Every structure is written in C-alpha cells, then in structure tokens.
Amino acid sequence: MRAFCTTCGMMAMAFAAVGFWCACAFAQQAEKFNGLHMSMGNLSRLSDAKTRSISPESFTGEKGKAGMATEGTGKNAARELGQGWKISPSVRIKANSTFTLADIQGSGAIQQIWMTPTGHWRFLILRMYWDGETEPSVEVPVGDFFACGWNKYAQVSSLAVCVNPGSAFNCYWVMPFRKSAKLTIENISDKDETVYYQVNYTLTEVPADEGYFHAQFRRNNPLPYKQDHVILDGVKGKGHFVGTYMAWQSNNVGWWGEGEIKFFMDGDKEFPTICGTGTEDYFCGSYGFHARTADGTTEYREYTTPYAGMPQVIRPDGLNESQQRFGLYRWHIMDPVRFESDLKVTMQALGWRSGGRYLPLQDDISSVGFWYQTEPHASFPKLPDKDGLEVN
What we know:
Mean pLDDT: 93
Strand content: 35-45%
CATH superfamily of the largest domain: Protein of unknown function DUF2961
Oligomer: single chain
C-alpha cells in the first residue's frame, strides 16, 4: 500500500501498525531543534536551549541572580525603594578605558543586542572575541556597527539592524560560539560615558557547519584619486559575506554613485568574480536614489527595508554645497557571497565630469563589512586613531 506525503510531496510506504512513513518524516522525527535561527516558521518548536541575558542588572547572566544590585547608576533614584528597583540600569565607562560587556562560557549563540550609548559614537569601539581568541573577530565603532556612522540618529528598520527613537541600537545577527564569547567596549574619548545595554543569548549545541561572525571597519578620508575604497581585504578561510554598511561623504557637487562594487574571491587577481553596476544598484536603489517631489523637482529619498536601505541623508547647511552625507546598508541575508579560501571586497567612487566622462572622486568613505567564516581569521588592520575616526 502506498500513500502521498504532504510534507515532501513524495510517495511513501504505508504500514498498518506504524502509519505512513517516508525519508522526510523520519528526518523530522530524528532532528532535534537547538533553538537557533528563529523565524515565524519554527517559532512553535520546543528545544532544550537555555535563554540567558546579560545587562547592568545581571553582569553574569546567571539563573535567578538578575536585579540583585545594591550599587549602580540608579541607586539615588531608587533610594526610597531599595534592592530590586532599577538600581543598575546602565554603566559608566571611564575615559580611555575598556569595559567588558559580557563574558559567556559554554556553547551557544548571541541572538540579539540592544544598546544606547552617550557621547561620540565613533569613540566607543565594540569588540567581540569567540572561543578565547586573543584578536577580535569584531572591531567596529559602535555607531557604524549599528548603521549610524555619522554620530546622528537615523531610523533603521531592517532584519539585521534596527535603530529606534531616540538612539536605541539593536542587532539580530546570529553570533555562534562553541566555548566562550566575550564582548568589550573601549571608550577612547577624554570623557566618561554612559552605556545602557542588553545581550540576549542562548546556551545550546552549535552544529559543525556554523561559521563565526565577523565585522571590520575601514575609512578613507579622503579616498586617494583613482583608487577604490577597500571594504575587506586579506580575509582567509571558508565563509560567506553577509553585509555592508557605508557612511559616505561626497566632496564634490553632483552625483557620486557611479562606482562599482567588486568581490575578489578564491584566488582572483586583477579581475573579480562578481562586479556590480553602480553604487545605488548595489544598495538596491536606482537612478541616484532620487524621487520626484510635489513641485516636480527631484531629491534624495531616504528608505529603509529588510535587506537594503539609505536611511540617512545629511543635506548641506548652506555653507558648503558639497559634502552631503549618506548612510547606506546592504544585507546579503538571502544572497550571501560565498568563498572557499579568501575574499577581498572593494567599492569605486565615481561621479561625472565634462564630456560625459567619469570623475574619480576623493570622498570621505567609511565602511563595515560583515561576514561569517571558519577560524582562525587573519589579523585586522589597525583602526584609525581618534582624530582619524572623528566626524563633525
């Protein structure tokens, strides 16, 4: 006797004693859900994963030990209420010092981070270390990591990053670890700063094919003439590229986005395997990100979508007709760029000059490249110093 499996669409053998069975049904029965990669499609599935959270009200994430603080930034406000009443909602990070946001032991994954920092967002450097490594897999100024590189709020509504009023940074990148995870934030400013934060994670088994999350910051200010901006270079190992954020200041009057993105992978030399057709095309826009207004003119139009956006346009203040600023993101969630041994990613900066010719631009361009890969990873280039990071 045979029957049709509604799950996989295959014919299945039927046995009176056990019901209908096929390879698909057997795999579903055998598979044990580990609580990672949550979606509406698996939200009903139960697992043995343990949910934990680290914040200033629970620095270790231990079970049953949150909200016990007797000292903290809220102590004075809670002086009439006592322990358990928002005594430690934030931390003060001393000038020119590093604070450990989270130090997690075991196997699992960070699933969400919320953060609200004070001060200059380029002067707070976020770093992440997996499985006891001594060099960070993530090293990015906090604003750029959360797609707000110009030290000014812009709403971002995407799958990987959300920035909500008034300066609420959120990310949903899955960040697996097998032995440990350590997150730090360095305050390179000369002022003490306050940071509110929460790191939500799960302790669970991590499959062998899970890569480690990486993010790297780079800046050219200005970009040398006839040179491409390098988003990533020297990446070694197997992995896939999953996103780009760029903070782009145009130093010329006129259009700035004719340049092409290029992905050099697995031994590519002079020419890449993947080449885009224009900057606005890469960020899933078109025709210069322009939209027509009610009076018939055109203007840059901000947009924020699940996978790509230009959520920030900082227009000239009248004193300088050039130096418009833009914040752009492109998440390769549905189309990761896979590599087997190495990866380099570059972006051109091109405008127009007379005679219908391209003009290589010398713009102020910062970027963050996001990717997953096997460890160990290659060393990152040294971050710019404080003056090299600053934006005004």
